[in-house]
Amino acid sequence: MEKHNKSERGARRKRFSAVFACALLFSVPLAVSAADAGAQQITVHLGDYRFQPDTIEVVAGRPVELTLVNDDKITPHNFTLKEPNAGIDLDAAVSAGKSTTLQFTPQTAGSYIFYCNKKLPFMKSHREHGMEGKLIVRPAS
């Protein structure tokens, strides 16, 4: 009987190993596919009524991973870019000292303005202080 239990355990281990190996084999092509997709990774720093860099270039039809970093210690900012015809509809708040990541895929080549629309009562908006930039979407080649 003990011999039977050992052989059952051995069979279970083999099945587990086979399942684990299949899982690895199937996950490798998925990882390669994600890498082949080649998301365009961009980091933009926000602070002191500015975006750094204030001009971003990407390629149409390729995914973009945009990381926004608020360098200010007190002031919240946001990133607004609304061009639905180009496949872009972004509006993300970034608290002071925090960061956030947006993902989008621009569909149409062109030049688009992004800005921060934060505003204190009776003051100019951050955009009116010059906090805006340009997204240039190049055609896919």
* Mean pLDDT figure: 84
Distance between the termini: 68 Å
Number of strands: 9
Give the strand line-up of the largest sheet: 2-1-4-7
Shape: flat
Helix content range: 25-40%
CATH topology of the largest domain: Immunoglobulin-like
CATH class of the largest domain, please? Answer: Mainly Beta
What is the percentage of strand-forming residues? 35-45%
Unreliable stretches covering 5 or more consecutive residues: 18-36
Secondary-structure-based class equals alpha/beta
Compressed to H and E, one letter per element, the order equals HEEEEEEEEE
Major β-sheet annotation: 4 strands, mixed
DSSP summary: helix tally: 1
Rg value: 24 Å
| CATH architecture level-2 label of the largest domain | Sandwich
Give me the CATH superfamily of the largest domain: Cupredoxins -  blue copper proteins
Question: Would you spell out the secondary-structure blueprint of this structure?
Answer:
Blueprint: H1 2-37, E1 40-47, E2 50-52, E3 55-59, E4 64-70, E5 77-83, E6 88-94, E7 99-104, E8 110-115, E9 132-138
Parallel strand pairs: 1-4, 3-9
Antiparallel strand pairs: 1-2, 4-7, 5-6, 8-9
What are the defining features of this structure?
1 helix; 141 residues; four-stranded mixed beta sheet; 2 domains; alpha/beta; three-stranded mixed beta sheet; Immunoglobulin-like
Description:
By secondary structure, the chain is an alpha/beta fold. It folds into two domains: 1-37; 40-138, Cupredoxins -  blue copper proteins (Immunoglobulin-like, Sandwich). Helix content is 26%, strand content 40%. The chain is built from one helix and nine strands; from the N terminus they run αβββββββββ. It has one helix spanning 2-37; strands at 40-47, 50-52, 55-59, 64-70, 77-83, 88-94, 99-104, 110-115, 132-138. Strands 2-1-4-7 form a four-stranded mixed beta sheet, with no helix packed on it. The chain has a three-stranded mixed beta sheet with strand order 3-9-8, with no helix packed on it. Strand 5 and strand 6 form a beta hairpin. The chain is flat. Residues 18-36 have low confidence and may be disordered.
